[in-house]
Amino acid sequence: MAVKQADLILTDIDYILTMDDSLTEYKDADIVIKDGKIVDIGKDKKSEYYGKTVVCKNKIAIPGLINTHTHAAMTLLRGYGSDNPLKVWLEEYIWPAEGRFVSYEFVKDGTEIAVYEMLRTGTTTFVDMYFYENAVADVIQKAGIRGILSTGILDFPTPGAKTPDEGIRKTVDFINEYKDSPFVIPAIGPHAPYTCSPETLKKAYEVAEKYDILYHIHIAETEFEVNTVKEKYGKTPVEHLDSVGVLSERTLAAHMVYPSDKEIDILSERQVKVAHCPESNLKLASGIAPVPEMIQRGVIVGIGTDGTASNDNLDIIGEISTAAKLHKGFKKDPTVLNAKEALLMATRWGAQAVRMEDKIGSLETGKFADIVLLDMNDPRLNPLYDPYTQIVYSSSGLDVDTVIIGGEIKVLSKKVLPVNKDYLLEKAEYWKRKIDEIRKK
Ligand SMILES: [Zn+2]
User: What spacing in Å lies between the alpha carbon of 306 and ligand 1's midpoint?
Assistant: First the structure.
């Protein structure tokens, strides 16, 4: 008899892939949600509860996806200057556009477009590094998506701060403003070892320790960076950062394309987390990160898209598909990074990478009800022998049917509920016209 009250009951789900420690799976089962959290999960749970019910036949439930590295507002530069050498792309396209236009308005509009795309493709938590993170915070609080937000801190003037000290000060203000928000999770974002002095890196780390937040930084993305750091400090990037004292379990290293064998040992020992961004690394021709080696040696690796200017989308399912195939091909071994591991990168491992594994990353009682339902009622996705395989190798983010964050339905029947699409298209066109002007001069 239904005796217990619930806020939302998802019933008759074909497969639930919990992604918990034992990779528990349920078939034809239910998920019960109350006060934004999962209160029950498993077979025949629906009979015990009453409340709003959604029948989920032909669907697979997975945890909300986690994008561990992006620059959300760069949607406004999607496809701008693609296929050029990196130096040309940065110096003639990206930096002039950013220098001219990055503002509260730019970041707000770009992030709104990004949030639409992330929700549509099943991302429920993302890690951001850009400027005007207060604009990002305003957007995501309204949309009800979780963001771990860091302002890029560099040794030269940025759109938000004239000096690195000002950048750090503003981050502290941001932390104090949002410390109790369930959606805005402040982090600190020293940009990279070649753009931040040891002093800046250290000061930022002190803030991370004091406020117990994530230290989000790009490390070893390109050969250029490795050579620059070696020339300047006589050490490789990871060794250099280790000697500065900023590597620990709170450090999230984006890219990590070029760690040496010795550096992988340091990462493992210090429990540094890695945000693997394969499509950006391929598109910018940065290289291929030694992900299988890092995983094998106990480094937690999450998945990231990087900004859409170098990807050029925010589809996490597409990203793990690329990762799984890239490393098989590169290692000439089809057993490398299997579908379960690929999905772990986007779920539980991603949650560990951002130090939120007690709240998100798997479907378990007590965790936030951040849930994605994929629609498998499509000949493209059948026959269905193995749900993990089908998600990673056959489907895309566009097969996401329903997205729930903290128990609230954000996407239903492939429609993003809190968003006006026409308004976003107008915004995109507005910025395109402005940015196009730069190169006409
Ligand atoms: Zn990046």
Answer: 5
188: tokens are: 């600190």
Tokens of 86: 């990196």
Q: Where in the chain are the domains? A: 4-63+370-416, 65-353
- Kindly report the backbone phi and psi dihedral angles of residue 4, in degrees, each rounded to the nearest multiple of 5, phi listed first: -100, 140
Whether cis (ω within 30° of 0) applies to the bond prior to 383 is yes
Give CATH for domain 4-63+370-416.
2.30.40.10
Give 40-83 pLDDT, tens digit per residue: 999 999 999 999 999 999 999 999 999 999 999 999 999 999 99
Question: Nearest-CA neighbor of 75 among 366, 298, 307, 363?
Answer: 307
Closest by CA to 291, choosing from 319, 330, 252, is 330
pLDDT average, residue stretch 345-365: 98
Residue type, 180: D
Cα 64 to ligand 1 centroid, rounded to whole Å: 22
Q: E-assigned strands of 35-77?
A: 37-42, 49-55, 59-63, 65-70
In the three-class reduction of DSSP (H, G, I as helix; E, B as strand; rest coil), residue 204 is classed as: helix
Expressed in angstroms and rounded, the spacing between residue 269 Cα and the centre of ligand 1 is 24
The contacts of residue 91 (CB under 8 Å, 6+ apart) are: none
pLDDT tens, residue by residue, 215-255: 999 999 999 999 999 999 999 999 999 999 999 999 999 99
Question: What pTM value is reported for the model?
Answer: 0.98
CB 296 within 8 A of CB 323: no
Q: How far apart are CA 361 and CA 341, in angstroms?
A: 13
Q: Is the pLDDT of residue 262 over 90?
A: yes
So what's the architecture of 65-353 in CATH? Answer: Alpha-Beta Barrel (3.20)
Q: How far is the CA of 29 from the centre of ligand 1 (A)?
A: 39
